[in-house]
Design goal:
By secondary structure, the protein is of the alpha/beta class. The chain has helices at residues 11-20, 57-64, 69-73, 83-95, 109-117, 129-143, 154-160, 162-170, 185-197, 213-220, 243-252, 261-275, 281-293, 313-320, and strands at residues 30-32, 42-46, 76-79, 99-103, 121-124, 146-147, 176-180, 202-208, 255-259, 302-306. The protein has 14 helices and ten strands.
Length: 322
């Protein structure tokens, strides 16, 4: 697909998604990172407090609620490292339809158990996003299910964009916004919403050093597949950005910043210590970038999206122990 020919998600679609999500997605708070007045400029959009523990339910429900009832009743399938799978499972239970989630063999058990507890059938395939996508496509064909992709779909992007609308209302003085960039669905949606309403707000995408797929794609001018990935931020370990999401990021995101695992782990600790919140490493990556780029007493209002809080107690304990 030629990203130049892709139509970007309009504001009207994001506003419509917000209406569909009324009573479904939580209006998560925007909270200060720290009581230390030197950090008064840095705030957190707490999607770790969202239903199913991450922002993903916004896009998943927005897409699934628009399916024809007969199509939806046959069931849905998705592929996910964890959070999107849980979101699809949650939305499927809410809509009363079956769901199959294909996860990597390395998926954190807390995310596997989360999807199962929500009623989804969980299957495993390989260790990469490509492995699980291929497996999910086979299940889609064999069972006649509908695919709910994790990021590369305009309906997913529109649902995730509701995060951006909320931030503009909750922190109207925002000057810089940090959004994680895995496959790019959240970064695309937030940027589409924010730039349509407040083009002056700087939108920064954040990805881990072990999976710089968006950075390399922007350098190449088109989506590229990277050979090797690895990071504690398991939710951001996508080998390739989507065509739809790459088009949005290239057009609307001001900058992509790379953070390393030490910075991410430190951000998890800071969020726990100062904000009294649990963030998974993928959700803390934005705070790692914001702390580097907007040190104490910086000007403006910086908001970092803490995208998820699905982390096992064992992993969290290891990170907090340093």
């Amino acid at each position: 697909m030629d990203s130049l020919s892709i139509t970007l998600v309009p504001l009207d679609d994001i506003v419509a998604a917000r209406a569909r999500l009324q009573g479904i997605a939580r209006l998560t708070p925007v909270l200060p990172l720290s009581p230390d007045p030197r950090w008064r400029h840095l705030r957190l959009k707490c999607e770790n407090l969202q239903v199913a523990g991450a922002f993903k339910v916004r896009g998943a429900y927005n897409l699934m609620s628009q399916l024809h009832p007969e199509t939806r009743a046959r069931g849905v399938v998705t592929y996910s490292s964890g959070n999107h799978g849980q979101a699809v499972a949650w939305a499927a239970r809410r809509l009363g339809v079956p769901a199959v989630v294909v996860m990597p063999t390395t998926a954190p058990i807390v995310k596997v158990d989360g999807a199962r507890m929500l009623g989804a059938e969980v299957q495993f395939a390989g260790t990469t996003s490509i492995d699980r996508k291929l497996a999910a496509e086979i299940i889609e064909r064999e069972r006649g299910l509908t695919m709910v992709p994790p990021f590369d779909d305009a309906r997913i992007v529109a649902g995730q964009g509701t995060v951006g609308l909320e931030i503009l209302e909750q922190a109207p003085e925002v000057t810089t916004l940090y959004v994680p960039a895995g496959g790019g669905g959240l970064a695309s949606g937030v940027a589409a919403a924010v730039k349509a309403v407040r083009p002056d707000v700087k939108v920064i995408g954040v990805e881990p050093a072990g999976a710089p797929k968006m950075t390399r794609s922007l350098e190449a001018g088109h989506p590229v597949t990277i050979d090797q990935i690895g990071s504690i931020a398991d939710g951001l370990l996508t080998l390739r950005p989507g065509d739809v999401t790459f088009a949005h990021v290239r057009s609307l995101v001001d900058e992509i910043v790379i953070v390393d695992d030490d910075e991410i782990a430190d951000a998890v600790r800071v969020i726990a210590r100062d904000a009294k919140l649990v963030a998974e490493p993928s959700g803390a990556a934005t705070v790692a970038a914001a702390r580097r780029m907007a040190p104490p007493d910086s000007q403006g209002t910086h908001v970092a999206v803490v995208s998820g809080g699905n982390v096992s107690l064992e992993t969290l304990a290891r990170i907090l122990a340093g």
